[in-house]
Amino acid sequence: MSDVLSKQQRSYCMSRIRDKNTKPELIFRKALWANSLRYRLKNKLPGRPDMVFPGRRLAVFVDGCFWHECPEHFQMPKANRAFWEEKLLKTKVRDKEVNSMLKQKGWIVLRFWEHEIKTDLSGCVDEVSQVFHEAESRPNRTDS
Ligand SMILES: [Zn+2]
Question: What predicted TM-score, i.e. pTM, was given to this entire model?
Answer without folding.
Answer: 0.80
